Amino acid sequence: MATLSLSSRPLTFLRPNRTKPPLHRLLRHKPLASSSASALTPPTPRADPSSTPDPDPTPLFLRSASHPVPAAALASFRRRAAALVPPSAPHLHRHLRWLLADATADPSSDPALLRAPLDDLEAMWTRHVRERRPFQYVVGNEHWRDLVVAVREGVLIPRPETEAVVDMIRKVEGFADGRWADLGTGSGAIAVAVARELGHEGRVFAVDVSEVAVEVATLNVQRYGVQGKVEIRHGSWFEPLEDVKGKLMGVISNPPYIPTDDLPGLQPEVGWHEPKLALDGGKEGLEHLLHLCEGLSSVLKPGGFFVFEALAI
Ligand SMILES: C[S@@+](CC[C@H](N)C(=O)[O-])C[C@H]1O[C@@H](n2cnc3c(N)ncnc32)[C@H](O)[C@@H]1O
């Protein structure tokens, strides 16, 4: 089993027989090594997240606290919610505390002012416990580096190990005034984090083929006020970068890299709910990475960098 994330709000990719953590690399136009396939756990039934869209995609903690409920009703919800937690899942009690913290403007007031109707909270909690919907999708955000990144179904929840790519490129000489591309930007977490470190001339081109990702990344870029430094571009990998060919100091990417055959063995929070487009790396998990490596030389300026996340080999 390899764990890809262990944060305050954990989400893991479970892959039997994979023992190494993901690899982050900092390369100067170097080729890639391959990874090996693994055995699978039996397929698990798949929820269909598209059939139950979020009534409100705004992160819970950003919604207005406009739903008064008697403190006794809130306490009763807390007891009912806690009673749903199986003994084998103590982390769910922690999630319940976080849910209430995000949902309540002033927990000591009576009536309590909630950011969503109590019935909605009840439904959100039930989906988390019964359908294994990731907690991050329930509350609509993930804590990542020093950011609180908005997320929702259709966009990958950024993982803590991906934080390392930002630390890596910050060390590159000339980083702050360089032009960078974040290919497969998803929530835009990398692009926003990089943009906040850039100098006056620095820019990030954040590319994703997913419309949901483009929407969520746009929201995160706006929330952090880095519109002047991040350009979000919709399209496949290098396609939207024609105008900056040969001008980039570096390309950063956390492309989909789970081998297709491993997808059915992912833990339900991931396999049932996170977008296949963000996970499926094709046979051996290298399809997208190899495509990126092939195209790098056309967009990088001489001496440019490629920083990426991949499975360990
Ligand atoms: C593993 S996720 C990474 C998301 C984000 N960068 C992060 O680290 O949280 C991979 C991303 O690549 C995007 N993607 C998949 N195929 C793509 C393509 N052909 N062109 C651009 N982006 C693509 C997915 O939509 C997804 O957002």
Outline the structure in words:
The protein is an alpha/beta fold and 313 residues long. Helix content is 30%, strand content 17%. The protein is built from ten helices and ten strands. It has helices at 71-83, 91-103, 118-130, 135-139, 163-170, 189-195, 211-223, 268-271, 276-279, 287-299, and strands at residues 23-27, 67-69, 112-114, 141-144, 147-150, 179-183, 203-208, 230-234, 248-253, 300-310. The model is unreliable at 1-51 (pLDDT under 50). The structure holds S-adenosylmethionine. S-adenosylmethionine binds at residues 156, 158, 162, 184-187, 189-190, 207-210, 213, 236-237, 254-256, 277-278. Residues 1-10 have a biased composition (Polar residues). Residues 17-31 have a biased composition (Basic residues). Residues 32-41 have a biased composition (Low complexity).
Kindly summarize this structure in a few lines.
GO terms for molecular function: nucleic acid binding; protein methyltransferase activity; S-adenosylmethionine-dependent methyltransferase activity. With 313 residues, the chain is an alpha/beta fold.
